[in-house]
Amino acid sequence: MLEWAWQLHEEGRLLELADPEMGEFPEEEVLRYMKVAFFCTQAAANRRPKMSQVLDMLSRNIRLNEKQLTAPGFFNSSGSLSGPSGKKSFSETTTSRMSSVPDTITQVTPR
């Protein structure tokens, strides 16, 4: 979905991502939320905003610097992070392999 959203953004058709069943909605606000999501999914971790910055971007009417927005990172079928061109965004010296530790779920039960 992220890849599709980025493609729509590049084509200037980002609002097509919104569910047509919603009817009317504040278009500028929805576009802003989608762009904030792009900032949060940048391929390079140092380009992603801190949660306090995300909160400010969503709750206050501050100007987003969209010129700093680059393509988000995507996971390919091998589990490594890549950009929209399919090239790995990690250097060859950095391990891009995902953890081999299986996912676990912790269930909290009351005393």
TrEMBL record:
Residues 92-111 have a biased composition (Polar residues). Keywords: ATP-binding, Kinase, Nucleotide-binding, Transferase. PANTHER family: CYSTEINE-RICH RECEPTOR-LIKE PROTEIN KINASE 3 (PTHR47973). It comes from Malus baccata (Siberian crab apple). The lineage of its organism: Eukaryota, Viridiplantae, Streptophyta, Embryophyta, Tracheophyta. It comes from the Eukaryota. Residues 74-111 are annotated as: Disordered. Residues 74-88 have a biased composition (Low complexity). The keyword Nucleotide-binding applies. This is Serine-threonine/tyrosine-protein kinase catalytic domain-containing protein. One of its GO terms (molecular function) is ATP binding.
